[in-house]
Design a protein that fits this description.
about 20% strand, about 150 residues, single chain, alpha+beta
Amino acid sequence: MEKKIQKQFVYDGFGFPVVLKNVPMTKARGRWTPNINYNDLTMDVLKALATHGSRLTGAEVRFVRQASEMTLQEFAQRFDVSHPAVMKWERAGASPTSMAWTTEKDVRLFIIDSFGGKPKALVETYHRLEQPASERRRRVSMDLAA
């Protein structure tokens, strides 16, 4: 099998674009495909979303909910909102949701707490989120060589 490192690859498999840098690629059936562990990538993307500098989009909220294996009702109950509110957030798609910053902050802290964050990481994230994230959209990006 042929292999290479691709400097940049945009992965859309989570419902939103994730820019991957230094991606190991393998040629299979004539097509280049990332040679990565998608479970590890899921965890890395979740952690990146927790501290991402932009407000969460509807697609990112759906990704967090599905990665948490929660129904709309369970997710809504966890964040003390109605399930139609969660549906509205998710319908925002690639745009930022209309959720209050305090709720989004809780969602981000939930990510750290639920997906293996250490208490120190939870505290650091809490302090980092004292100011609302930017409304300006930035893509989630990660270097796989690191």
